[in-house]
């Protein structure tokens, strides 16, 4: 396949790497709001892959992934094009907060965006039109929101074969299947024929090197699957659990207010009936035990140790018998790497 220029409102010829700051808005002072983007256009033809981080400005693990991807690959090795959007929500990133400041607009609920709309939709329109629409597949990197952490996993609409191929190729052990919100980047891009997955990894406001390394392996596995790196093997995990039913997942929430102490041990595997956490009052005269309703993995967990009734405590997904046996084998062998709080 012949390599072609990658076009946005300019173009990057085959065999070139371009680091650019692309204006998508303005500040109160009229200064440009620019997103950092790296485009690696390979010497050989192939698919275009977009990757982005920090749609929520305080979610930093993906920012490190973008930095590494953008500096790791040479155009002579690439069959296709890599488009790395290092920081999508620059205003939120500068303020180190999730949403676009002042009006608390969620950039990931603003796609595909449009001219003449609110700030977030105008920014989304610029990002989508110039750097997402020209691509063939996409990976959207996220972390949990503040005060929580999440196990490394993929979110994808596995009912769509093109998305399922991408999700499996990324190589995460856990895939939560389902549609995302209608105005999220993942949904809009997928519905426009650009299969896209979300990668959730760890906590906001920090780099977690072990998770970054796993994400880099996942990116390389995807590039291998789609022929962007034809000489690299696709990586398959030792086990994969796809959660595609609401019966197989639940958020456990506090029924009382107080101090939360997690009790489930060094790995996020719990068996039915085991204590996940306790909630006690400040005088330690009352304690509420929160037990696992089924055997499964703690995918998301509260890190702020105080809760009021209704506050989420943990996100639990079930595991089948075969997966449970493989997880227990990995734990016994010291190979189980999931530590959502690390």
UniProtKB/TrEMBL annotation:
MF term (GO), any: hydrolase activity, acting on carbon-nitrogen (but not peptide) bonds, in linear amides
Source organism of this protein record: Haloferax litoreum
Pfam families given in the database record: AstE_AspA_cat
PANTHER family in the record: BLL3975 PROTEIN
Listed cofactors: Zn(2+)
InterPro entries xref list: AstE_AspA_cat (IPR055438), N-alpha-Ac-DABA-like (IPR043795), N-alpha-Ac-DABA_deacetylase (IPR053138)
Sorted UniProt keywords: Hydrolase, Metal-binding, Zinc
Succinylglutamate desuccinylase/Aspartoacylase catalytic domain: residues covered: 46-225
CDD domains recorded: M14_ASTE_ASPA-like
Keyword check for Metal-binding: yes
Annotated protein name in UniProt: Deacylase
Keyword Zinc belongs to the record: yes
